């Protein structure tokens, strides 16, 4: 193996893959210049979570960053003047096995620019996974990016070797996609997703009847959207998510804040990177849809097209619906308990279990782990004390915000006084 050439390719193709967040946290750039321990030199190792919650490290690379398309938001677009490279199928197989044997990684995340056409590219991605499984007996995690427009037959084959498949929607709205990636058609994302969904269902059904059925994409499928490249509202983004979750049984939608990379006048100006806070609010909303029983229309609608930046979406909903509170934690159903700001999924499950044996009071709620500095404004328990009283939602919001600000300042000043003490001792 020509290590110098492989290393060059690895640098280019791991760097190009870092914009895909559907497997998070790419490697950092710290060099080992003093012969110390470890070397984190941007070789595309990232971390991801498997279905059973294990954190696995993955080799995250593109097969190639050559691409026949010219999507305005993408660093790999054909008009971008960058260094290009392409791995051979066997090179990716060898790298994966070598990294695996050295214990650097537990799996592979493989994506690609589109060269020649969708099927030609998809065939090569599959060839890597197939060789790893069949020739190398590799049982590690494999996440393959599906190429929009790939044929049904190839999508069926991909799921036989990959743990997870994903097609990136990229731009949340059709009009945004037309503007920024006019060569792409939304149907080309939907077709492979539909195929994967149907295959997963079919294999699960066959498994109930037959003894030996091959596993098909056991970690399901996911997608990614770029946020902030085409001026869409939070409502447009989350309505798209809700549609894709429901229609294609997606495991995850990832939200990736647009990173300004070009001067193209169809894009936001350079320097206007999407704040991390917006990504966070979208993830919180996503969580409320998947685990807290909210419908997207309750959180975002014509009157509220964007999420509030100063409070989380659950508190925002509660403040807009004060007529539904207070609720009695000893009587309320799970659906309403999950809507109380300060009560998480774990706390709610504990409350439901504990109240079978006794009437819960504030002390019990505290020991359960409920965040009472928020929840107390929306609940009553064994006393009828209710902190909201006749306050308006604006007043309540300002009290909660000032509470959390003073809590934050108190924590900070505690931490600073610890440093003060430490300095005094060491002086
Ligand atoms: S097809 Fe994919 S890799 Fe190619 S320019 Fe568009 S987003 Fe980038």
UniProtKB/TrEMBL annotation:
<dbReference type="GO" id="GO:0046872">
    <property type="term" value="F:metal ion binding"/>
</dbReference>
<dbReference type="InterPro" id="IPR051675">
    <property type="entry name" value="Endo/Exo/Phosphatase_dom_1"/>
</dbReference>
<keyword id="KW-0479">Metal-binding</keyword>
<keyword id="KW-0949">S-adenosyl-L-methionine</keyword>
<feature type="domain" description="Elp3/MiaA/NifB-like radical SAM core">
    <location>
        <begin position="57"/>
        <end position="284"/>
    </location>
</feature>
<dbReference type="InterPro" id="IPR058240">
    <property type="entry name" value="rSAM_sf"/>
</dbReference>
<dbReference type="InterPro" id="IPR023874">
    <property type="entry name" value="DNA_rSAM_put"/>
</dbReference>
<dbReference type="Pfam" id="PF04055">
    <property type="entry name" value="Radical_SAM"/>
</dbReference>
<dbReference type="InterPro" id="IPR007197">
    <property type="entry name" value="rSAM"/>
</dbReference>
<keyword id="KW-0408">Iron</keyword>
<dbReference type="GO" id="GO:0003824">
    <property type="term" value="F:catalytic activity"/>
</dbReference>
<dbReference type="GO" id="GO:0051536">
    <property type="term" value="F:iron-sulfur cluster binding"/>
</dbReference>
<keyword id="KW-0411">Iron-sulfur</keyword>
<dbReference type="InterPro" id="IPR006638">
    <property type="entry name" value="Elp3/MiaA/NifB-like_rSAM"/>
</dbReference>
<dbReference type="InterPro" id="IPR013785">
    <property type="entry name" value="Aldolase_TIM"/>
</dbReference>
<protein>
    <submittedName>
        <fullName>DNA modification/repair radical SAM protein</fullName>
    </submittedName>
</protein>
<dbReference type="InterPro" id="IPR010994">
    <property type="entry name" value="RuvA_2-like"/>
</dbReference>
């Amino acid at each position: 193996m020509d290590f110098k050439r492989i290393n060059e390719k690895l640098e280019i193709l791991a760097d190009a893959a870092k914009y895909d967040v559907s497997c998070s946290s790419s490697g950092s750039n710290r060099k080992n210049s003093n012969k110390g321990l470890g070397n984190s030199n941007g070789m595309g190792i990232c971390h991801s979570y498997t279905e059973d919650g294990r954190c696995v490290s993955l080799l995250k690379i593109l097969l190639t960053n050559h691409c026949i398309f010219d999507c305005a938001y993408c660093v790999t677009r054909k008009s971008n003047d960058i260094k290009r490279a392409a791995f051979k199928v066997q090179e990716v197989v060898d790298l994966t096995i070598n990294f695996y044997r050295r214990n650097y990684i537990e799996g592979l995340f493989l994506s690609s620019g589109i060269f020649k056409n969708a099927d030609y590219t998809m065939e090569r991605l599959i060839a890597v996974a197939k060789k790893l499984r069949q020739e190398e007996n590799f049982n590690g995690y494999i996440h393959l990016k599906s190429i929009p427009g790939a044929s049904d037959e190839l999508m069926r084959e991909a799921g036989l070797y990959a743990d997870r498949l994903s097609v990136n929607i990229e731009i949340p709205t059709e009009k945004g996609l037309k503007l920024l990636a006019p060569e792409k058609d939304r149907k080309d994302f939907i077709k492979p997703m539909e195929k994967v969904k149907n295959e997963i269902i079919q294999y699960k059904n066959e498994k109930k009847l037959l003894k030996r059925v091959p596993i098909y994409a056991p970690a399901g499928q996911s997608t990614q959207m770029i946020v902030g490249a085409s001026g869409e509202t939070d409502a447009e983004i989350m309505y798209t998510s809700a549609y894709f979750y429901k229609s294609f049984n997606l495991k995850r939608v990832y939200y990736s804040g647009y990173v300004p990379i070009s001067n193209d006048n169809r894009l936001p100006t350079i320097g206007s990177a999407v704040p991390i806070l917006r990504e966070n609010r979208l993830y919180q909303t996503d969580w409320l849809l998947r685990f807290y029983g909210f419908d997207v229309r309750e959180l975002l609608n014509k009157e509220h097209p964007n999420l509030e930046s100063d409070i989380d979406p659950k508190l925002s909903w509660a403040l807009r619906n004060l007529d539904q509170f207070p609720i009695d934690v000893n009587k309320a159903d799970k659906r309403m308990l999950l809507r109380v700001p300060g009560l998480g999924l774990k706390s709610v499950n504990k409350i439901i279990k504990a109240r079978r044996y006794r009437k819960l009071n504030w002390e019990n709620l505290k020991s359960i782990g409920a965040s009472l500095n928020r929840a107390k404004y929306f609940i009553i328990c064994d006393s009828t004390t209710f902190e909201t009283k006749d306050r308006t939602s604006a007043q309540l919001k300002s009290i909660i915000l000032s509470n959390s600000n003073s809590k934050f300042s108190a924590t900070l000043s505690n931490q600073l006084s610890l440093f003060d003490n430490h300095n005094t001792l060491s002086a």
